[in-house]
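dumping this here before i forget
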Amino acid sequence: MKTKVLVVEDDKLVSYEIKSILDNNGFDVDICDSYSCCIKNLDTFKPELILLDIDLHKKYEGIQIGSYLNSKVNIPFIYITGYTDVETLKRIQTTKPVGYLSKPFREIDIINNIELALYNKKASLDNHKKSDEQPEEHKYSKPIKRALEYIDTNINQEIKTDELIRVSGWSKFHFIREFAKEVGMTPYQYIFDEKMKLASSKLTNTYQTVKEIAFDLGYTSNSSFTNAFVKHSGLSPSNYRKKYCR
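structure:
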């Protein structure tokens, strides 16, 4: 069965260009151009992924849709945008997209971003399934599980230990001790490792720029992301891509 992708774009030339690309790559595609149309299609078309323009008939209407998708449904979405300014990038991060495409885009950028988003969704579902199938004694405690779920959901933002403590419901000392005991590392190291795993995947499997990947993962500058990645892998993001990109 074909994967269903909904394209939310009010520029007909752009929407039909994307539809043509996706049709040629074996996707089942529908198009809409507004907030109300998109919400309706969630029930009628039942998309598995959404490509979402930031600006529709109203400025930032796409971000309003992104906020709805993030809070109400479990459908990954990728922003399409002509904006690359820091303020807009910070704003879209709060809605937790799985990525974004900058105009003008290439066919390979669209397909790689979609394939990575679908792969990550499947991997997440598989991990949850494996966790559910584990014997009870091997599962994380509920407070630690809540903290891990919070990290997974907010991996594209700055995640502070104080927020994880609040989510767990434990005291600071007890949470940090139990997290290290159950997970095998500190909260900071776990978050760092998860961000770097995702960064490595994006560098080798997509054509996103280093800047785009940095903002996708909640870093406010290329330099802070590059320093973190070098610390993790021993290579700069650009050199890592050159060495390992397929």
